[in-house]
From TrEMBL:
All copies of domain Cytochrome b561, residue ranges: 223-427
Designated name of the protein: Putative Ferric-chelate reductase
Domain DOMON: 101-219
Localization in the cell: Membrane
Gene Ontology BP, a term: regulation of postsynaptic membrane neurotransmitter receptor levels
Species for this entry: Daphnia magna
Signal peptide coordinates: 1-22
Keyword Membrane appears in the UniProt entry: yes
Keywords: Electron transport, Membrane, Signal, Transmembrane, Transmembrane helix, Transport
One Gene Ontology CC term in the entry: membrane
Length: 433
């Protein structure tokens, strides 16, 4: 047993070393450019585009297209954070202290107005960085100010996230807005502007003397407005008074992380092991029972019950976190739709099993096929789709364990049950792993 464990751990180590040193980490070709990636920046000399306002200080930028961590290379937008102005950065954490944020918003009171700065590093052409003021940590019914670089021109606009979580520019996109500087240089996008204290958008009055959650995002833009920001977004951990000068932390997204953890555990581990037991142990693990049921079936039922419970809990908490349906377009990422289908299929499985006919019933085959089809569909959607997501090392470990677990079962079959061995290649082929 110890030898097998050492061998498995060695394989896991080799797998992770290959994963972290393979293509995409250290061997990226010079001309590599992911197709359709709006955020990929080809490092080459760029042309500065600035539209400064008279008598305003100029902000200097480095020639590097990466967010530098050396103080002498950091643009002056970080100066005064926590002292004379409040700051909030993307992706959060310690990026402000390290001066390594990919996007940043600063805010301070200036007389009867509120002065903001928006800044983004590695900003490609036709992109934006924007800040939203929200009553909660969820996108919807928010006042948004955008800083955009479109067709070589830098501008700032006012827009609004409606209740359907769609961003719409105001009819007068400069309403309540006074732009004092707009700059694009060496991939660094910067806007400084003032907003008046109060602004009515529809039936809602936004009073900047009140507290708001800060929504910070960046992404592609066009003449019509800003587009979906993908995962380049963050939300402040608490509501902020814009007269504060402290740096603000980002929302850790605990419920989102729990959702992902529960789904990965359910479908990559519990469901996979439960299916493995039903697939390979039904005809071999016989003669051992618990409360009148074969032992393989007892474990199969426990594992699938865990899958069901974790899936339902994960489904509920993500709706609690988002406050409803996601704002991500289905065409951009079908994750939410696939998740709903997976949850529905998983939810009906135990009820189908409860009303299953006797094994000797003439129409038992109908249940067998229905049970297999629903379960297989749910497992395929729940586990194999998640392998395309960035779901941390847990996905890789569970995949490796499951794969080598099946190979280990082949060896056990060959040693203990030679009569079954001849059927294994065909059965594994049907497994489709």
């Amino acid at each position: 047993m110890s030898r097998q464990l050492i061998r498995l751990l060695s394989l896991l180590a080799i797998f992770q070393i290959h994963r972290c040193t393979g293509y995409g980490y250290t061997d990226i070709p010079k001309n590599y450019n992911p197709a359709g990636d709006p955020y990929y920046v080809d490092v080459r000399p760029s042309t500065a585009r600035t539209t400064p306002i008279a008598n305003t200080p100029q902000h200097s930028f480095t020639d590097s297209t990466r967010a530098a961590k050396v103080s002498s290379q950091v643009p002056s937008v970080y100066g005064g954070c926590g002292q004379i102005k409040g700051c909030f950065g993307l992706p959060g954490g310690v990026c402000i202290e390290e001066k390594s944020c990919s996007a940043l918003v600063t805010y301070a009171v200036n007389g009867q107005h509120y002065e903001f700065e928006l800044w983004a590093v590695n900003a490609p052409a036709d992109s934006f960085v924007a800040v939203g003021l929200s009553d909660d940590h969820i996108m919807g019914d928010d006042s948004v100010t955008e800083c955009t670089i479109v067709n070589g021109r830098v501008n700032a606009y006012m827009s609004h996230n409606d209740n359907s979580k769609t961003n719409v520019r105001l009819k007068d996109p400069r309403s309540g807005l006074n732009v004092t500087q707009a700059t694009y240089k060496d991939g660094n996008l910067y806007c400084r502007f003032q907003r008046q204290k109060q602004l009515a958008i529809g039936q809602k009055m936004f009073d900047l003397s009140q507290t708001y959650h800060l929504l910070l995002a960046r992404g592609p833009a066009s003449n019509e407005g800003i587009s979906y920001h993908e995962r380049q977004k963050t939300v402040s951990a608490r509501s902020v008074k814009l007269s504060e000068t402290a740096a603000v932390g980002a929302n850790k997204g605990t419920l989102v992380k729990l959702h992902g953890t529960f789904m990965v555990t359910a479908w990559m581990l519990a469901a996979s092991c439960g299916i493995l037991l039903a697939r390979y142990y039904k005809l071999t693990w016989v003669g051992q029972q618990f409360m009148g049921k074969d032992l393989w079936f007892v474990y199969h039922r426990i594992l699938l019950a865990i899958t069901w419970a974790l899936t339902v809990i994960a489904f509920i908490i993500i709706f609690v976190e988002l406050g409803g349906w996601t704002s991500i377009p289905v065409t951009s990422n079908p994750h939410a739709v696939i998740g709903v289908i997976t949850t529905v299929l998983a939810f009906i499985q135990p009820f189908m099993a409860y009303f299953r006919p006797h094994p000797e019933a003439p129409r038992r085959y109908i249940f067998n096929w229905a049970h297999w089809l629903v379960g297989k569909s749910a497992h395929t959607l729940g586990s194999k789709y998640n392998r395309t997501q960035n779901c941390s090392i847990l996905c890789d470990i569970s995949r490796v364990l499951f794969f080598f677990g099946q190979l280990g079962n082949v060896k056990l079959y060959a040693f203990f049950w030679p009569s079954v061995w001849t059927r294994l290649p065909f059965r594994i082929g049907l497994r489709g792993f």
